Amino acid sequence: MLQYLLSGMAWVFGVAGGLSFWVGGRAIHEVIGTDRAFAEMEGITLALVLFLLAVVSKTSAESVEKGENGELVSLAICAESDREKSA
Fold first, then answer.
1. 35: in domain
2. Does 32 reside within a domain?
3. Are 17 and 54 in contact (CB under 8 A)?
């Protein structure tokens, strides 16, 4: 369940980042009334942050694994550190 949620979040962040990249600067310029160059920089920065969140969400979704009994859900990084401690 968590894997599907994170995958969906990655998709939403990616779409929002793309929209922000293409129309974010113009929208910020028209709504807030800031200088066009500054608004474009804000739009690109927002797009980069959203793309970064998309990458983090997708990477987290790929590293989620189920526990041994199939009920627990944990990140693969945590599961590896737990295996090392028990060995």
1. yes
2. yes
3. yes
Q: Does the CA dihedral 14-16-17-18 come out positive or negative? A: positive
* Whether residue 79 has pLDDT greater than 80: no
What stretches of the chain show up as alpha helix (H) in DSSP? 2-32, 36-63, 76-86
Residue 62 confidence (pLDDT): 81
Q: Which two tokens stand for residue 70?
A: 């199939």
Q: Are strands 64-66 and 73-75 parallel, antiparallel or unpaired?
A: antiparallel
Tens of pLDDT along 10-61? 999 999 999 988 888 888 889 988 898 998 999 999 999 999 999 999 888 8
pLDDT of residue 82: 56
For 9, the domain range is 2-62
Beta strands (DSSP E) in 14-79 are 64-66, 73-75
Query: From the centroid of its chain, how far is CA 47?
Result: 11
* DSSP category for residue 35: -
Q: Which amino acid, residue 71?
A: E
